[in-house]
UniProtKB/TrEMBL annotation:
Source organism per UniProt: Parahalioglobus pacificus
Alphabetically ordered keywords of this record: FAD, Flavoprotein, Oxidoreductase
Domain FAD-binding PCMH-type: 41-220
UniProt name for this protein: FAD-binding oxidoreductase
GO process annotations (BP): respiratory electron transport chain
Amino acid sequence: MSHQSTQQQRIEALRDLLGAANVLIDQQSLTHFGTDWTRYYTPAPLAIVFPTCIADVQALVIYAAEHSLALVPSGGRTGLSAGAVATDGELVVCLDKLNTIDAFNPVDGTLRCGAGVTTGEIQSFAEREGLYYPVDFASSGSSQIGGNVATNAGGIKVVRYGMTREWIAGLKVVTGTGELLDLNRGLVKNNAGYDLRHLVIGSEGTLGIVVEVTVRLVNPPAPHSVMLMACPSMPAIIEVLKAARSTLTLNAFEFFSDKALDKVCEATGWQRPVQVESPFYALLEFEQSDADAAQNLYAAVASQHWASDAVMSQSIGQAQQLWAFRERISEIISHWVPYKSDISSVISKLPDMLAAIDEIVGRAYPEFEIVWFGHIGDGNVHLNVLKPEALDIQTFSERCGEVNTWVSEVVREYGGSVSAEHGIGLLKKSVLPYSVSPAELAIMRGIKASFDPHGIMNPGKIFD
């Protein structure tokens, strides 16, 4: 039987399994659903399928295992490491229709929902109930909770609230054999053996498909203010952070470079938020009751020449505008198809690590423009190398492969991680050994074999 006939038979079987309306094979859908925010790979899936319930997912996995059909779970496709890209005839399992909010328990402070519910929908539901879901990032309106779990998403409030991992009370996961695991079941205390929930969190769909999530909710934070400071150097920003942690209740501590601010102002027409131009800017969010302490903080750090100018919000609108200078960076620099490196280290080592990376990349490729920003308060920074307009994407990608290796060598030297929050996917697979040992890799492969004995769950991601 020809390859084409086999593929057609599989598509017909999938239509029988899920209904014809839930199986898409047109080129526009294959391209749209077969990739994420990375643009270095050409999507080439067999089909896009939309299970409508957990039983659909189980039946789909069983069929895929019987026919050696690779599966790529797909949520909001906002990832930046090509973890949700299908390049080799895989079946994309789009979880959009698992989007119901099933149960809210005000006593336990938990919310159970399908994997396709967006982060923003969870935040809005919590707000209506007078509660708060603290995991937040610029893509919250489109990213889905299943994808957040699969990548252990971080975002802008990690300095106070931690990563997605901290807020997952329970998970339902379909393994590579079609078995449904009900992990932790919302418990606060549960020491009954290994906590498999935490193996699944951050596994990028390589162990199973997350189909249902129970999240924890908390009381909302107090009203907040935002301050933006101009800082002369990365070491100065670290000094500001150290001083701020001892005097303010911080919700967030972000930074971005002057080049990042330039790009935002050029694209939007906004005026610069402070009068003094400086190499770096620190953005602090803190409780409004700390406003006087924040003014005193600025006076203290300015006297040490760690900051040269600052502006503090006087209203909710001003706070949102100051945040917009930080949050619009990724969207605006996407025009240059940037090579992104999502790295971390302990905070005290960040200035030296960033300086070393700047020097290496700048010496080798002086025509490459570098934009820095990130979550400095938790040691996570984002390196963005912008593609020159005249350079074709293939050549740029090849050169950035060299950059990737050099950056990873520096990260290893400073005891950091090659992926702080975006995962490994396809993009960082080659540099994973810079952050984990051969023994750790062997254990990871063994874990995957236990969850996914047929090797159908997002194969080729994280490792081969």
